[in-house]
Amino acid sequence: MPVHAVEDDIIKSPQDEREYRFLLLSNQLKVLLVSDAATEKAAAALAVRVGHLCDPEEIPGLAHFCEHMLFLGTEKYPSENAYTEFLSHHGGAGNAFTSAEFTTYFFDVAHDHLHGALDRFAQFFICPLFNADAKDREVNAVDSENDKNLQVDAWRFRQVCKATSRPGHVYRKFGTGSKYTLETRPQELGLDVREELLKLHSKYYSSNLMALVVLGRETLDELASLVEALFSPIVTKSVPVPEFPEHPYSENELQAWIECVPVKELRQMQLEFPLPDLLEYYNCDPTFYIAHLVGHEGPGSLLSYFKAKGWCNLLSAGPSAGAKGFMFFTIGMELTEDGEDHPEEIVTAVFQYLAMLRQKGPQEWIFRECAVSSCCCHGCRQTPSTLC
Q1: How far apart are CA 125 and CA 207, in angstroms?
Q2: 67 included as an active-site residue
Q3: Is the predicted pLDDT of residue 36 greater than 50, yes or no?
Q4: How many CB atoms lie within 10 A of CB 191?
Q5: Roughly how many angstroms between the first and final C-alpha of the chain, as a whole number?
Q6: Is the pTM of the predicted complex or chain greater than 0.90?
Q7: Under 8 Å between Cβ of 97 and 319
Q8: What percent of the chain has pLDDT above 70?
Q9: Span 191-207, average pLDDT
Q10: CA angle, 11 then 12 then 15, to 5°
Q11: C-beta atoms surrounding 241 within 10 Å
Q12: Which pairs with CB-CB distance under 8 Å and at least 24 residues apart come from 303-311?
């Protein structure tokens, strides 16, 4: 049997007119089907639970390089441009990105060409060619991407946070890759990057580490048949989900004050706190309560105090993704020129506010208020766009 489990009872907004179904294929691929009889575009996305934290130490950026290479031909569709040309000829486009623990591929296309697009898409995960002739060109493409990121402050600041984390922790890895990490250094070490690429793909590109979403005009039964036929051939190797139980910030890395010179004219402050992995508590979202209070903008809030002082224009707070095993809670502020001269007072006020919240303890009425607000937002949620 190609389908191991089926679930039609998907919680959705009353305003959402789409139909949903969850499938677990026999190869352990998790699938969410979305049927929308009015959509002009069909779409799909597949996430693989492998990112740059799984890169070999000797070749930073290999998972990202793998993402690039998957687009360049498969055994069934060997032309390097077969996938992208099909999408562009039928009103669509595709892309992908690599994060710390996921690589995600996605596309949209005119609704009546979903089958052809999905067939080409599925081959990425069944029989990619990893054409050796394209290797050098894609190394250069990754290198250009890294050069661009060097002038983006958000990328620079994140790399500083990684570089100041626990020595030897995988969080410190350089995830984008460059010509040096993907060509020059491997050659110095006597490593064949294409062979290492094949090893990474063989090890982690297993259907039990994948999740797929497909949207189309077809009925749920028609979408299910299409997905079963095209994606069941993906091999499962029963690979354990990569876990990183040790937090990248130990006591030795905390209480650090880091100043960064931005490329653009920015005045920002960011406080980052280590958290354990709270994903298992997603149904009650414990960080929402703290984020709601710290990020509040009304009277008595941190932001209202900072605005009265003329120190801050914007303040945001909430959880930041890490990986399976750790995460962060981040408080970010956009400072005024005057606020830039009072960083210690701002940090003191934040910690005083956190101490006050700790002293008062959780308030049920606030939790209930947040719950009601979330329910109202979910209940009023309209049918989302194709790729959102």
Answers
A1: 8
A2: yes
A3: yes
A4: 14
A5: 33
A6: yes
A7: no
A8: 97
A9: 95
A10: 155
A11: 10
A12: 305/349, 306/333, 306/339, 306/346, 306/349, 309/338, 309/339, 309/342, 309/345, 310/336, 310/338, 310/339, 311/335, 311/336, 311/338, 311/339, 311/342, 311/345, 311/346
Half-sphere exposure of 171 (CA within 13 A, CB side): 27
pLDDT tens figures, 115-174: 999 999 999 999 999 998 899 999 999 999 999 999 999 999 999 999 999 999 999 999
- The pLDDT of residue 385: 65
331-343 burial string, b = 16+ CB within 10 Å, else e? bbbebbeebeebe
- The DSSP secondary structure of 107-122, one letter per residue, reads EEEEGGGHHHHHHHHH
Alpha-carbon torsion, ordered 8, 286, 162, 137, to 10 deg: 20
Q: Which of 67, 101, 196, 218 is catalytic?
A: 67
Residue 61 or 382, more confident: 61
Phi, psi (rounded to 5 degrees) for 328: -135, 160
DSSP 213-269: EEEESS-HHHHHHHHHHHHTTSPP--PPPP---S-S--GGGSS-------SSS--EE
Asked if the model's pLDDT at residue 328 lies above 90, the reply is yes
Q: What is the pLDDT averaged over residues 342-369?
A: 95
* Strand order across the beta sheet in which 326-335 lies: 268-276, 326-335, 312-323
Q: Report whether 25 contacts 231 (CB < 8 A).
A: yes
**CA dihedral over 69, 75, 81, 85, signed as positive or negative:** negative
The kind and range of the H/E element at 123 are helix 114-123
The label of the residue with tokens 């998790």 reads 30
- For the record, the structure tokens of 35 come out as 């049927």
Share the mean pLDDT of the chain. 94
Is the pLDDT at 207 greater than 90? The verdict is yes
Q: How does residue 388 score in pLDDT terms, banded at 50, 70 and 90?
A: very low
Q: How far is CA 346 from the centre of its chain?
A: 31
Pick left, alpha or beta for residue 190 (phi over 0 → left; psi -120 to 50 → alpha; otherwise beta). Answer: left
Rounded Cα gap, residues 279 and 374, in angstroms: 18
Upper half-sphere CA count for residue 187 (Cβ side, 13 Å): 6
Give dist(CA 123, CA 121) in Å, integer.
5
Contact 89, 98 (CB under 8 A): no
